Amino acid sequence: MLTGAGVSAESGVPTFRGETGLWRDYRPEELATPQAFDREPRLVWEWYGWRRDLVSKCEPNDAHVAIAERVLESGETRVITQNVDGLHTQAAEAVAESSDLSPLQRPIELHGSLFRTRCTACGKREASHAPIDASSEETLPRCAACSALLRPDVVWFGESLDPGLLTESFKLAGEIDVCLVVGTSAVVHPAASIAFAAADAGAVVIEINPEATPLSSVARVSLRGTATEVVRGIL
Ligand code: NAD
Ligand code: ZN
Asked: What is the enclosing helix (H) or strand (E) of 231?
């Protein structure tokens, strides 16, 4: 299963391509880049602080829960997500009533997580949930090990995805019988290519999206509804 921002839309997390995806008239493409962070780390952290705050107030919706139930019951279903909101993990932990999930029960988070930081110098990754003080450059989060600036552990425009996660995802695409694609515009590559690779390898691709996407032409079935309307039923 491949999911995108649309699966979280009904939880109140804005998609990038929706009207409410904007923050103070900035487009995500202007802020989610290494160049923007080099130039104005305070502004970029302020935006990420706002996004973290927004997502912290959101709950997994019925689509996240149905997907989590399926993953935990079947032991054979995997979730690959472009989302950085952590809601798939949150749903799985709630269904399992434990935060002790196996790696196979966890989603493959292709684009990282809003709730992790990475050191710009030593590369150390850490879970991070505290509010961000972006009032000045001096108050931005810093590495406990080497005191360099921390950045959000997300993949920005122009950056490469983790090669290990990509290999694992394309391997899955070559093995699966059915690929459910929920709430992705299918224009962000290489994430979208995973669904095309699954179709090429003979998997039945089922798309769930209120709008047509480039993937609709290769999907066996395109269900034009929202995630919470369609996902539980189709599963
Ligand atoms: P996108 O914003 O490009 O597209 C969202 C898609 O979801 C659209 O095709 C839209 O028609 C569909 N959609 C909207 N509401 C829906 C609903 N209720 N149910 C089902 N589908 C719905 O998102 P993308 O394809 O994930 O790519 C955008 C990039 O932005 C990704 O790289 C992702 O990392 C990032 N992003 C993540 C989040 C998040 O973590 N929740 C939010 C915004 C953007
Ligand atoms: Zn460091």
From this structure: helix 227-234
